[in-house]
Design goal:
The protein has a domain of 152 residues: Pectate Lyase C-like (3 Solenoid). The protein contains 1 helix and 54 strands. The strands form 5 sheets. The chain has a 24-stranded parallel β-sheet, with no helix packed on it. It has a 24-stranded parallel β-sheet, with no helix packed on it. The radius of gyration is 37 Å and the shape is rod-shaped.
Length: 589
């Protein structure tokens, strides 16, 4: 027993070397030594180092090298020139209840150690890390307090496997918890808030679990939970909120990760996933962020059952992402768009609620092919319920929009637009309910060819039910119910379309209206109770067959507006002038 001694101002305060076992070192003052306060080296086992003061030593406070089954507890190990407590190459040691603060390196560090427990310590205001584990396995780090590291992290693991980090508090550090090359770690129930760089960072550490932590209030541009180049990660039940101008949860270059049941509010980005495949993002609350859930260059991911609402831009954003499933999410009350996908192919967007967004409920934008939008509710949005746009840089082709509800939107229920060579072609719009919108129900604005619009219910829209604008050619409009609109179906500067077996009843003006639209086939439609049955304006070579109207098939050309009538009258006037001139010439002979 070494107890109650004062060993100050020497080289080593207390030094045990080679095979020193079953000793008790307690209640000693070992301060201001040029090297170490207490030093045990080589096979020193089953020692109890407790209640000592080891402060202001030139190198380190307490050091154990190649020693097993020791207990280091209740010591004050502060203001040393190196580490507070260091354990090298030992197993089954317990480091508990110590104050290891304000040291010039780490508060507590273990190197090459297995099966050690570090618990209940205070490791604050150290220059480097609060607690550091290098190249160790199966260690437990629990219930420690680490406040305000100067330079580095609260808890730092490097090259260490199968460690458990639980119920610690790490505040005011660089990262609260930082793993590098430390796979199969469990990070459980820690408070890692208000840190300089972020709450939890996991780099190159496969198979780790991050569960039930609070990783909030990081400094500007920082991230609550950050995963990089790590696969098979579980991120469940964490709080990652209020990271100012930063990200709640970030995943990059990682796959097979589950992000589930987290609260991720009031960040710049809620959940951000980049260049990562086969991940699941489910059941998270991602509200009041600038953007909710963002995926960039990610394939085969599932985004389901999340609440991504009240953002300043987008609820869910996918860019250059293929073969993803977005289903069962609530994406409402966002400032711009509920769901937006840009440059994405072969994705499924189904059974989502995208209501009350400032502009669009669901938006597909350029280079979007072979996507399926089905069973969604997109109501009460500021402009469009569902919006497909092919701009000059890329088309939106071969998409399916089916079984959706797009009602009470500020402009259009379903809207398609191409631009120049970037068209919206070969899309299927079927079995949707598109009622009570403030402009047209289904609107193909321009450059939309070879689309099929079938079996939709398009009623009580303020303007027209189904409207095809300029350069919308070779489309099929069939089997739709288009009632109680201003006009039922309108073709304007659209050619070679087929309008077949629709019901367009009780519309304010016309059941079907054609303006400057030629070579169209209008066949087998039911057009009852409209002010006009079929109206043509400035058209030619359209075919009308077997349509049912109140008084038989009826086609009306307005007398004043008709281009054909104007052309005929003009031609007759020219002929009359020519004949008159010839008559005058004959009388001169």
């Amino acid at each position: 027993t070494i107890s109650g001694n004062i060993a100050n101002n020497g080289g080593y305060g207390i030094y045990l070397y080679w095979n020193c076992t079953d000793n008790t070192i307690s209640g000693n003052n070992v301060n201001y030594n040029t090297q170490y306060g207490i030093y045990l080296e080589y096979e020193c086992s089953n020692n109890n180092i407790s209640g000592n003061t080891a402060n202001y030593n030139g190198n380190q406070g307490i050091v154990i090298g190649l020693c097993d089954n020791n207990k280091i507890s209740g010591n004050d190990v502060s203001n040393n020139g190196g580490n507070g407590i260091r354990v090298n190459g030992g197993q089954d040691n317990t480091i508990s209840g110590n104050n290891a603060s304000s040291n010039d390196d780490n508060g507590i560090i273990i190197f090459g150690c297995n099966n050690n427990t570090i618990s209940g310590n205070t490791a604050s205001n150290n220059y480097n890390n609060g607690i550091s584990v290098d190249e160790g396995q199966d260690n437990t780090i629990s219930e420690n307090n680490i406040i305000n590291t100067t330079y580095n992290n609260g808890i730092d693991l490097s090259g260490s496997h199968f460690n458990t980090i639980s119920r610690n508090v790490a505040i005011g550090t660089g990262y609260g918890i930082y793993l590098d090359g430390s796979p199969y770690s469990s990070i459980l129930g820690n408070n890692v808030s208000n840190n300089k760089y972020g709450g939890i960072a996991v780099y190159d550490s496969n198979g780790s679990n991050i569960i039930g932590n609070n990783a909030s209030n990081s400094d500007i541009y920082c991230t609550g939970i950050e995963i990089y180049n790590s696969n098979d990660i579980i991120i469940v039940g964490n709080i990652a909120s209020n990271n100012y101008d930063g990200t709640g949860i970030s995943l990059r270059d990682s796959k097979n990760t589950t992000i589930s049941g987290n609260i991720v509010n009031d960040n710049y980005r809620g959940i951000s996933v980049m260049v990562s495949n086969n991940n699941t993002i489910s059941g998270n609350n991602v509200n009041n962020n600038f953007n909710g859930i963002i995926l960039n260059e990610c394939d085969y991911n599932t985004i389901s059952g999340n609440n991504a609402s009240n953002t300043d831009e987008y609820g869910i954003l996918l860019s250059s992402c293929d073969y993803n499933t977005i289903s069962g999410n609530n994406i409402s009350n966002n400032k711009y768009t509920g769901i937006i996908i840009e440059g994405c192919q072969n994705n499924t967007i189904s059974i989502n609620i995208a209501n009350n967004n400032g502009e669009q409920g669901i938006h597909l934008y350029r280079y979007c092919y072979n996507n399926t939008i089905s069973g969604n509710t997109a109501n009460y949005n500021g402009k469009y319920g569902i919006y497909l746009w092919g701009d000059m840089s890329g088309s939106c082709d071969n998409n399916t929009i089916s079984g959706n509800t797009a009602n009470y939107n500020g402009k259009y229920g379903i809207y398609l637009e191409g631009e120049g060579l970037a068209q919206c072609d070969n899309n299927i719009i079927s079995d949707n309910t598109v009622n009570n919108n403030n402009d047209h129900g289904i609107y193909l604005y321009r450059y939309c060819d070879y689309n099929t619009i079938s079996d939709n219910t398009v009623n009580s829209n303020k303007n027209d039910g189904i409207y095809l604008g300029r350069y919308c050619d070779y489309n099929i409009i069939s089997g739709n119910n288009v009632n109680n609109n201003f006009n039922g179906i309108v073709l304007n500067k659209s050619h070679h379309n087929t309008v077949l077996e629709n019901t367009a009843n009780n519309n304010t003006y016309a059941g079907i209206m054609l303006q400057e639209s030629n070579f169209n086939s209008i066949t087998g439609n039911t057009l009852i109770g409209n002010n006009e049955c079929i109206v043509e304006v400035d058209c030619f070579e359209n075919e009308f067959k077997d349509n049912s109207c109140d008084y038989g098939e009826k086609v009306r050309w307005p007398a004043i507006l008709g281009y054909n009538l104007f052309f005929i009258l003009g031609t007759l006037s020219i002929i009359s002038i020519i004949i008159s001139k010839k008559s005058k010439r004959k009388r001169n002979y």
